[in-house]
Write a structure and sequence with these properties.
6 helices, seven-stranded mixed beta sheet, globular, alpha/beta, 24% strand, 14 strands
Length: 263
Amino acid sequence: MKVAHFGDIHYNEKDYNEIDKCMRFIIERCLEESPDVIICPGDIINSQYLGADTKSMKAVQTQFRELSDIAPIAVVAGTFSHDGLAPELLRSVAGKYPIWVSTKPEQIILCKTPGQIFWAKSNSTTLTINAILVVTQIPPPTKEHWKNKQGPEKDNKNISQAMGAIFTKFGEMAKHHECPHILNGHFSMQGSMISDSQMLPGGDIEIGKDILYMANACAYLLGHIHHKQIINDNIFYAGSIFRKNFGERDDDKGFFIHNIIEE
């Protein structure tokens, strides 16, 4: 299965021309590569206050519609101060194939029947025989969300460890489907790099590799860190698609095309 993976677009009016050029290149490559699915791990826009009538917001809707004419798309909302509720608008712009947007942790299945490809929640067990891909969707874990929805933990380390229960649950759910399982997430990994020589400083909620692997996915396709990198052979940060600030000047920008081999 061929998977296109990009995120951290950070559309804004100031950098519109550069971002638009990069997105046009991604669309052209997707047309050439014909991926089976497109994974976007958030931070599509740079500010939740970006107006609906701006060039940038109109470009987001137009370009995701073009991408959804190529393949089904799974999106997770990124950092709220960036994306806000904007990703939810993508649900209404889908072209030939569907766009699924997750604003909370959930697991979805890409299903294929004669003449139709569609997304469904993984608890739709009657669709198991039609499943061709399982995607675990993990938006950014936040202290406030955990306090309101998940439990009393507030400390970054405790939240990271408690996320293991969520990953384990989704890993067990995925076993019911005889198809590849990937995780689409927007968060920081312990040990990830922000440049070739700089490790991510503390302060953010960071997920350890041992906790992440509780999801038992064959590939982990992530966003949030702008430095493109591969960790442990199956954890991938696509990085940002353009050089957003001076500190990213030497970063290799772009996106991934993954070939997922079903075992």
